[in-house]
Structure formats: structure tokens, C-alpha cells
Write a structure and sequence with these properties.
Number of helices: 10
Structural class: alpha/beta
CATH architecture of the largest domain: 3-Layer(aba) Sandwich
Oligomer: single chain
Radius of gyration: 20 Å
CATH class of the largest domain: Alpha Beta
Strand order of the largest sheet: 3-2-1-4-7-6-5
Order of helices and strands: HEHEHEHEHEEEHHHHEEH
Helix content: 25-40%
Number of domains: 2
CATH superfamily of the largest domain: P-loop containing nucleotide triphosphate hydrolases
Largest sheet: 7 strands, mixed
CATH topology of the largest domain: Rossmann fold
Amino acid sequence: MWYPGHIKKAKSKIKTYLKTVQGVLELVDARAPYASRAYEFEDLFKDKDRIILFNKIDIADEKQLKFWKDYYKSKGYKVLETSLKKVSIKSFLTKVVYKTFPKKFRELRVMVAGIPNVGKSTLINSLKGKKSLRVGNTPGVTKGVQWISVNDNFMLLDTPGILYSDIYNKKILYKLILIGSVKPEDDEKEFAIEYGFNFFKEKYPEILKTALKGDNPPEDYYEFLNMFAKKRNFIKSGNEYDIERAMSTFLKELSDGKFGKVVYDYPEDYEILK
């Protein structure tokens, strides 16, 4: 499920394409700065100048991000933050990203990487146009891989989004579902909401209260879903609450940041960081 053949092939291609770039711009969701990063990237990119870009900073709890910024800096990354949907992307790339990378050649070439729904498509699509693409005829790049021109001295290499080779930690899976990077199977959807509900009760109770339009949340996640369905008037035949619709709507609005600022990742969640 998590690692189909085309993603495995994409990872292999990324290794090949690395020789054509001087640096890597890797996007993560600021709400899950560790979970939203395919951990294989650490080895893949270790010999390149690297920037970690915390995207969606406008819906992240910035107080909880200091640890992660320091963590990535300790790994040799430069760290930037933004909300790509709220800034001029071209200006951000030229005035911030370009100036952050060391300049070793006249033209700076940077690979853009990231798992689904962290903002990579927003960044790339903002630059696309007939005059901004170079496809296939760049040395070292096969047909279908795009060089995108930011300006005369700055090129981005778009790459396929990849996920983990395996999701070894259920917490990571649930966090990826909550931020919208993974489409859950039916049973996973409910487990992710249960995980999120318990997490919010402990760390961000105001998220649940906002989702219920000001009402205090109950103790049980399933009762929460019933209250959520009632607030939205999600009723199905038989005059029962439509829990399936409630779950899907809650996850969508949660991934869009409609209930408030949050960070799901805490260092104690991961054995490697203890």
C-alpha cells in the first residue's frame, strides 16, 4: 500500500538526478516536521547542501517548533519557514531560498522534494508556464522530469513525491492521515481520528471545542463524532447520524487547519530521539 512500484522507481531516479543539482529543498508540513519527512531522505541527500522548508507555518503551533528547527540544524540543514499559499512564491524563492544556498556555479540548480500534501505542488505549479519549463533535454535528466526556471540563474528540478518504504510507527501513519498526506483505508480513518482525539484532549483541547462550534468535547471520540455530525446536520436515512461523513469532513477540515494551530510531533514520540 505504502510503497508501490512507481514510488520505488522514483526513489531510484532521485539518486540518479542528484548528480545534476547542487542542493536540495525539502518541504515538510510544519505541523508534523518529523512525520512528514520520508526518513530515507537523510541518507539520500547527505552529500548535498540542504534546506528544510517548514511549510504551513500559519496553521502550526510555533512554540513547539523550536526543537525541530534545532534538530534539523544539528543534522547539517539550513531551516526556513513559510506558508506558500500566503506569500509570493517567486519572491520567496529568489529573495530567501536562493540567497540561503551557497553559490558554487553561475547557475544554481536545486532539487525540490517532499511527500504528498506538504506544498510541493503549490510551489511548482506557481512557476509553471510555457517559458518556465525545460523538459527532458537537460543533460542527465530523462524525459518527463522537469527543470523549472525561477530566473536566469536559478533552476528547480521537480521530482515525484515519495513516501516511506514502510511506516514502522502507527503514530506516524495517523499523523500523516491527520495532515492529509496519506489517504486512509476505512479502518485506519477511525483509528487516526481516535488517536487525534486523544492527542487533542491532552495537548490542544481548544481544537475539539472549535470543531464542535464552542461546545465542550465529550470523553469518548465516538461521542465526539456524533456531536460533530449533529452540529453539521449530517443525518442519513433512518434519522441516524452520518458518522462516515462526519469522519471525512473532520479529517478534511483538520488537514486544512480550520480548527486552530497544532504540532503533532513531540520528541518523545520517536525512539531515535530519546
